[in-house]
Amino acid sequence: MKNLTNVMVWLLIPLFLVPAIAVGQKMKVASGNFEFLRGQRNLNVVFDYAGATFYNEMMSEQDYINKRIDEITRDKGADEAEVWRKDWDYSKSTTFVNKFLASMNKNLAIKSSTDEGDATYTVIVKTTWIYPGWFAGVMAQAAKVSTILRFVETADHSKVLLEIHSTKAPGNIQFVGIPNNNDRMSEGYAKTGKTLAALINKKLN
After folding, report:
1. What is the widest separation between alpha-carbon atoms in the chain?
2. Inter-residue contact 118 to 127 (CB < 8 Å)
């Protein structure tokens, strides 16, 4: 009976995970075209989190931070909450950025970096909304990341050549989910970079 129960649990896992994988990313060109990228070798990248909202309640980043700190303090103590707070800052400044860049550079000949100051063009990755998802053992919900990808002249960011809206990029690459919230979100940025690279390749080839 125990073995039968274990088999049934594993058979049910895909049903639990449907919400995590059924929602696909949408990437739509809002304005401009891709021709200015033809022949470019480097692309500068800037991340912008100003005004980002969280969950379906559209809470501010500070409200999200307060929510997580309260939850972690209640469950694991103030020290763990402080660890999470530092990890959140590191994820925003480093992990999310690196995941996006790694996907772009793996899938696109134009090399992207945050220190390509001499690149003619810059893509501003503006985060507009994040759903952190959740993890509960055999059940999981993927994170989702929505961004505006704005291509501008590096010398003058007011000159926008292309704007793309990326909606609900899924942040989960493991079958049974990713336990850490920030790691789930980082995969959403990886997916955004991969899909953007594919779109650029399609438009230029």
Report:
1. 69
2. no
